[in-house]
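Posted in: Structural Biology > Protein-Ligand Complexes

Title: Requesting predicted complex, iron/sulfur cluster in pocket

I'd be grateful if someone could produce the 3D structure tokens for the following input. Sequence and ligand are given below.
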Amino acid sequence: MHVHYRSCNICEATCGLEIKYDGNRIISIRGDKQDPLSRGHICPKAVALVDIYNDPDRLRRPVKRIKNSWKEISWDEAINEAAEKIKTIQKKYGKNSIATYLGNPVAHNFGTMLFIPFLHKALGTKQRYSATSIDQLPHNLAAYLMFGHYLLLPVPDIDRTNFMIILGGNPAVSNGSIMTAPGFVSRIKELLKRGGKLAVIDPRKSETAKLGSKHLFIRPGTDAALLLSMLNVIFKENLEKPGRLTEIARDFETVREIADDFPPEKVAEFTGIEAEEIKSLAREFALSDRAVIYGRFGASTQQFGGITQWLINLLNIVTGNLDREGGAMFTLPAADLIAMSRMTGSKGGFARRHSRVRKLPEFAGEFPVATLADEILTPGEGQIKGLITIAGNPVLSAPNGKKLEKALESLEFMLAIDIYINETTRFADIILPPATGLETPVFEILFYHLSVRNFVKYSPPLFQKNEWQQYDWEILADLSARISGQDFSPQKPEQMIDFILQFSPYNLTIEKLKQNPHGKDLGQLKPVLPHRLMTEDRLIHLAPREFVSDVKRLKNAIENNKRDPHFPFLLIGRRDIRSSNSWMHNSQRMVKGRNRCKALININDAKNLEIENGETVKIISRTGEIEIEVEVTEDVMEGVISIPHGWGHSREGVKLRVAKKHPGVSVNDITDDEFIDKLTGNAAFSGVKVRVEKVANTG
Ligand code: SF4
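-- Reply #1 --
Done. Output follows.
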């Protein structure tokens, strides 16, 4: 029996794993107690790594779709045919006729991350999409416009804070997102033990809210109004104390003027939070000596996601809690993409061009995924005719999945780099399956920028891939070369990481990291401003014009706040600990037990509609309808329906045998591609208007 240590790369928490194995057989997967960041924490999903490794439905060789069946073909034939198809389409319709879509797992694979730019260079297309505009674009835009780089994302210093406010996030289940905080529950228990407080503001009394000292229900999509009124209270009562940030930030007066217009009384009805509650929250936050406010999925994926993330940063700044211990801090990672971009110049960019059909702005070279279907379905110059998806399942994760299905069906060619024939890749003509999970090395190049401690780890593969398998980066290098005629693989990913490691002060190499199988602790987060700012004037921009002008839209929404009689409920999402978006559902141990794909409805709403717990109801929106079991609860706000995402595996052609037995329904069959944050273009899942109907008894 042998022991292997690695990081789990299923989610952003990057927990350390201790894996006992014998030959190709896994004996146990446990938390690595010597990992200085995760300290032995794991969640049930880590154990499912072995299920993915052994999954008979996982593709090991390229397949080609012939009508309704799939045929294995050689790598050479598959990549060659894909490259020829792409070249033919681009020759006929132009470079932008081929689009790319990158799914969430791309961010956890450093080989893919490093070789994607070669594919984009070979394609020369401006039609680029990714999961960024599904759930995190507002964070990146706020970082870019305020601090000068889309990766300068403040991270809560959770281990030293005394008061944490969480909006629209559920880290007790996720272990942090845009906040790598493995073992979040233990960390919060430590916060409470040292006399600190956690306040959670969420339309659902989530698992995180149940840990906290305070929970306030908030109407979905109104967080920006709450935050502005908190700023209003802080300025009105002279509670601001930005301290040394005064010297390195500009436009304090503009912020004060904007907040002046949003007294708590004005937003109370809109947010569903009483004015006195808002005042006391603002005071408590401003008067705490170490406090941090953090907002995640629900705060970003809503119609005011962009300004919400801006206002979160502002609250941390005006109370002096940015870049200080116990507040919102920046990391100093070993593989420092921010430092490196001082050389490459790739620090982001917003609205330099707009999408063809709906004129939505690009961010960092990508258009919002909410308009991908329009770009495929709308004829005209620049129409997308071919698509390459990499580790993505937008049919289940993007808004209005049914419309996207129609779009994918109409493509002249689709290539998927993926290990499964799932709800999206079943439309592909060719699927190229890379080696995955335990067969790959792990280096979380992105997430060490978001970690609650400075930390780095390199994990070699546990199992060698078979000689007929290829890594993602090998596929990308080969495909890019065949499309462009240029050789794009001068170095291996590890050599590229060695190059990037030179830009940090830690004097590390991959070889040195291999000597630290549990990872290397690089210390607690430290103040790094102003030298880490990437704005031209090296100042924090408190009032970027993009955000300032978007406040008017919020003001209109507050003034015209009415319940829609046709769609009186507002939809929110939910996640659970055994799901990772759509892609852990082919593991029996991840889906067994009671049905988790249920709609939560408040007990009073259920009474009014005469709906019983466990009954199946219809949820209807502008874009479609689904039938789903309801759970009647006090944990969700009145007027709100909560449905988890990532389900809906019963679609024809999906080759996931376990998932098909536990299909659930896709909430994105009723979300709306036209309901977006108009500033950023990010999808708005929180606050989609729906109605609930009883299903007629046909028995
Ligand atoms: S929280 Fe779970 S899925 Fe995420 S990294 Fe840790 S063990 Fe893996």
